[in-house]
Structure formats: C-alpha cells, structure tokens
Specification:
Distance between the termini: 12 Å
Order of helices and strands: HHHHEHEHEHHEEHHH
Number of helices: 11
Radius of gyration: 23 Å
Largest sheet: 3 strands, mixed
C-alpha cells in the first residue's frame, strides 16, 4: 500500500521484482539496485530518473521519465524473454496508478516481436486503456454448484459431502463468490454452526436459527475486536482505494507501526 504514494509505483515494483527484490521490501530500496538494473540493459540516465522519482534529487520531467521507464520495461522484457517465453502476472489492475498504465500502454505496442504474455486481473467495471486487439478477456462468473461444494470440503477437513439444503443456503448467501464462500464457511465453523457428522458437513445443533446472514457474522466478528483494531478497520473501509498506512495513521491518531 505504501507504493501508491509514489508515481509510476506499479512500473517500479515490476522492475524491483525483475531484479529480485521481495514484495515486502520497500520500493525505496530499488534506488540501491543500480548494478542489477544495468544487468538488464537499463542505463544510467534511467537509473537516475528512478532515483529521483523515489525522492533522491530533483523530480524528473514527466514527459521524459515516461519514455525512460517505458524503455526500461522494454529492456527487462527483452532480457527475460531472450531464451524462453515470459509470462508476467499483474494483479488488481484497477489499483494501478495512471502513469504506470500509460507506460504499459506504450509497452504493449512493442510486444508483437517478443514471446511475452501478460496475465492481468481487474474488477468487472475496469476499463482497459488499450486497444481491444491486444486483449483477450475472460470474465470469471460465480462458482457452479459442484465447484462451491468442493470449496466447502476444502475448508472442512475430513468431510466428503455437504448437506444439500445447507449447500443451497451457502450459495444463496454468497452468490457463488469464491472469497465469500471461504469467509462464510470459516465464520460458521468458528462459531460452531457447522459440524461434520458421518463425513457430511451439516448445521450443528447450535444452529437453532439456520445459517446467519454473512453481514451478521462479520459484524459479530468485528464486535469482538479491540477498540484500537476496530478503529483501524473502520478507517481502512472509509479510505477505500486510497488505502495506505499513512492515511489510516492520520485518521486514527495511531503510530504507523501499530497500524
């Protein structure tokens, strides 16, 4: 989240991953990787621009830095794909900063000559800023009944089948959404509302009123949080896509390390 305060953060994070930086390491450390960057054909002018983007010196001219970073992307992908096909994963594209998206757009024009494939995920309403001829889109819909049951069995170790009525209720509560099914099953199991009887997942005797609504279970879990943690969760919800530690720290008057 701290990357989002940096312009071209997604491109810089990609370059960081190419030179072997772990995701949890601050993007600021990319300024210390000049030798590794040079190994991928990234020259001193571009390295200087990267350092200045990261706050080490006068900010570079926007028009010039865009061209330099696009060239850096091209150099990295050329090096990576020299001997074999390269697949680049780019998750949650809707959170990518606009400057990085523009760089990617410029880069895509040059991919026809490289054995490179981008696998990108985004929310349904995200509008890709590139011509459709470059894209093949697959929309992931809700899980089928068998897939939903398989997910429940993964969460309930030792079970081999799910009570059909319970399964229908779980699908109705979650709309077949993978993350919501996982969350709901975990919450129900933690609350002793689910049990395994003769290798079958079913409602326990404690579930006198059936399966609660998902928002009820989440609210119950929220009410068990400490006041400090609850404040952080509320601030994160209000921040939405602008979420980062600094925003939450300011909104809750808590130190960043506590956040």
């Amino acid at each position: 989240y701290e990357d989002r305060a940096v312009q071209y953060s997604a491109v810089l994070r990609f370059l960081a991953s190419v030179v072997g930086m772990e995701p949890e390491i601050s993007i600021d450390h990319l300024a210390q990787q000049s030798e590794r960057l040079r190994a991928f054909g990234i020259e001193g002018t571009t390295i200087s621009a990267i350092n200045r983007i990261l706050g080490q010196g006068k900010p570079p001219e926007p028009a010039r830095v865009a061209g330099l970073l696009t060239q850096a992307l091209h150099s990295c992908l050329s090096s990576l794909s020299w001997e074999q096909t390269t697949i680049v994963g780019w998750d949650d594209l809707q959170f990518t900063d606009r400057a990085s998206l523009d760089c990617l757009g410029e880069m895509i024009d040059h991919l026809d000559t490289m054995p490179v494939m981008f696998l990108m995920t985004a929310t349904r309403n995200f509008e890709f800023p590139w011509p459709s001829r470059f894209l093949r889109t697959i929309e992931l819909g809700p899980l089928a009944a068998r897939e939903s049951q398989g997910l429940v069995l993964q969460r309930m170790e030792g079970a081999e089948r799910v009570d059909p009525e319970l399964m229908e209720t779980l699908r109705a509560r979650t709309g077949g959404n993978t993350l919501l099914i996982e969350e709901l099953v975990d919450l129900l199991a933690e609350s002793n509302i689910l049990e395994i009887d003769n290798r079958k997942v079913r409602l326990s005797g404690a579930a006198t009123e059936g399966v609660p609504e998902l928002d009820e279970l989440i609210r119950d879990r929220f009410n068990k949080l400490s006041a400090e943690t609850a404040d952080v969760v509320i601030a994160a919800a209000l921040a939405g896509p602008a979420l980062d530690e600094t925003v939450i720290a300011e909104g809750t008057n808590l130190a960043a390390d506590i956040v």
